[in-house]
Amino acid sequence: MDYDVLILGGGIIGCAVAYELSKYSLNIALIEKDYDIADDVALVNSSIVYDGIECENTLMSKLEMMGNKMFDDISSQINVPFKRCGSLFIAQNVKQEEVLYKIYNRAIDRGINNIEILNSEDIYELEPNLNIKLTKALYSKNTGIVCPYDLAIAYGEIAFDNGVKFKLEEEVIDIQQISKGFRVVTNKNKFTCKIVINTTPGQNYTIDSKEKVYTEKSNISYFLLENDFNVEFNNILNTFNEDNEFIYTVPTVQGNMIAAVNSSNDIGYSDTLKKISKVIGNIDENKINAFYKWPSYKDTIIIDESLIDKGYIKVVGKHYGQITMTPSIARIVCETIVSNTSCLPKKEFINKRREFYRFRDLTNEQRNKIIKMDNRYGRIICRCQKVTEGEIVDAIRRPLGARTVEGVKRRTGVTFGGCKGSDCFASIVSILARETNKKFTDIVKDSKNSKIIGSRIKEFN
Ligand SMILES: Cc1cc2nc3c(=O)[nH]c(=O)nc-3n(C[C@H](O)[C@H](O)[C@H](O)COP(=O)(O)OP(=O)(O)OC[C@H]3O[C@@H](n4cnc5c(N)ncnc54)[C@H](O)[C@@H]3O)c2cc1C
C-alpha cells in the first residue's frame, strides 16, 4: 500500500483531520485539487465561533458546543488568535422577546452555560455605542472570533511538519475498492491506501451511494468595514428586522468589523447599506473596504462512518458553523481511525507552528530586533496593512508556502487595506516570481487560469 490514510480535500476539515492524525504512527497523504490548501474557505468568512445556542438542529448544536469548548486549547497550541468576545441577540419588541426566551430555554435544555437575558440598561452598559431602541437581549459569553483561514493554514503547516505529504494541484477522479483497501485515482496518479477520509463536498465517486444535494440555503450580503470605522462594538450583535432577516455585526480578530444581512432574498449593495444602517447608524461609504455576497448553508453535517469496516469515512454537508465544528469533527474522525487501526501515538510529534512575525503587531523595539536579523523586515511592501517584504518571503518559504498572490494575501493580509493592492500588487508578483524562480508572467492569482500578467508589452534583450 502507498499510504495508510489518504485524506481527500485540503479545506479546513481536511487540514484539521491531517493535523489530528499526524499525532499517530501513520503514513498519511492529503490530496487537494487547488494550488493551495484552504483555498475555498470563504475569504471574508463571518469568523464566528458559535456556541450552539442559535442552532435549530440539536445535533449540529452539539457539534458546535463541542468545537467551541476546544477552541481555547487548540488556538493557543497552534498559535492562532482567538477571542471570546461574547454575543448579544437583541429584541426590540415583545414578539422578538418571545423568540429570545425560546432560544434561551432551548439552550438551557441543551446544557449550555454562561448565558443570560439582559435588560436594556445592562445591554447599553456592555455596548455603549449601540444606538437603537431595544427591550431585552440574550447574552452569551461563549461566542468567539477566529481567522478561519489562519486556523486552516496552521493545522496544515503542523501536519506537514509532522510528516503528512500534501499533494496539491491533484484532482481526485475516483475512489475504487480493492482487496484490503482502496485505489484513489487522480488526474496525475493512482494511489493505494488502507483508509480514505473524504472531505470534498459534493463529490461523488464509485464508492459513494448517492449524490449530495445542498438545499438548506440563505443569502449573506456583507460589508467589511475599515479599521478606523467610527463605530465599535465589543460583542457580536444579532438583530432581526421587520422582514424577518437577520442582521449582525462581528468585530474581527484583525480589528475591523463585518456587518451582514442574512436573508432568504438576494440582497444588493444599496439594500444591504440601508438595512445595516438601521442598526449601526449611517455608514460612511468610504469606510466600506469590500462588499461580498455568498450563500449560507445549514445542512446537517454527517460524519458518515457506515463503511468504516471497509476503511471509508466521508464528511458530508455544508453548514454556516463548520469552522466552529472543525476541531470536534477532526477529533471524532481521528478517534474512529485510532480505534479501528493499531496505530500508536508518535513520540516525536511537534505540536507547534513555526515562528512568524506580524510587523504591524510588534513594538518598535521588537521591529528593530527582527530588522537586525533580516533587513527585509524593514522594507514595507503593503503600506495600508504595514506588511514587510520579510513577511511575504516567509509566507512563500514556510512549509506549504504560498505560490499564488491569493496565498500571500491570505497569509499576510497584503492588499486588504484601503488601496486594495493598487500600490503593492506588482511588488508582490515580482517577489513571488523571484522566490519561486518563475517568470513574472507565470504568476497566477489563485488557480491555473488566473494569470495576472498576460504578456510583456515590450521585450528587451
Ligand atoms: C459566507 C460564509 C460565512 C461563513 N461563516 C462562518 C462562521 O462565521 N463560522 C463558522 O463556524 N463557519 C462559517 N462558515 C463555514 C465554513 O467557512 C465552511 O463551511 C468551511 O470552510 C468548509 O470547509 P470544508 O473543509 O468542509 O470544505 P472546503 O473548504 O470546500 O474544502 C474542500 C476542499 O476539497 C477540495 N476538493 C474538492 N473536490 C476535490 C477533488 N475532486 N480532488 C481534490 N480536492 C478536491 C476543494 O478544492 C477544497 O479545498 C462560513 C461559510 C460561508 C460560505
Short description, anyone?
30% of the residues lie in helices and 24% in strands. The protein is of the alpha+beta class.
Helix amount: 25-40%
- The tally of helices reads 11
Shape: globular
The strand count comes to 21
Q: Could you say which small molecules are bound to this protein?
A: flavin-adenine dinucleotide
CA gyration radius, whole angstroms = 23 Å
Oligomeric state = single chain
Classify the secondary structure makeup into a structural class: alpha+beta
Low-confidence regions:
none
- Beta-sheet strand percentage? 15-25%
Average pLDDT confidence is: 92
**Span from first to last CA?**
51 Å
Largest sheet, in brief, is: 8 strands, mixed
List keywords for this structure.
8-stranded mixed beta sheet, globular, 30% helix, alpha+beta, 461 residues
Account of the protein in words:
It is a single chain. The chain is an alpha+beta fold and about 450 residues long. The protein has helices at about 10-20, 60-75, 95-110, 120-125, 150-160, 270-280, 320-340, 365-375, 390-395, 405-410, 425-435; strands at about 5-10, 30, 50, 80-85, 85-90, 115-120, 135-140, 145, 165, 170-180, 180-185, 190-200, 215-225, 235-240, 245-250, 255-265, 290-295, 300-305, 310-315, 380, 385-390. Strands 1, 2, 9, 10, 11, 12, 18 and 19 form an eight-stranded mixed β-sheet that branches. Strands 6-7-5-14-15-16-13-17 form an eight-stranded mixed β-sheet, sandwiched between helices. A hairpin with a 4-residue loop joins strand 20 (about 380) and strand 21. Helix 1 (about 10-20) runs parallel beside helix 5. The longest helix has 20 residues, at about 60-75. It is globular, with a radius of gyration of 23 Å. Flavin-adenine dinucleotide (FAD) binds near residues 40, 172, 200, 201 and 320.
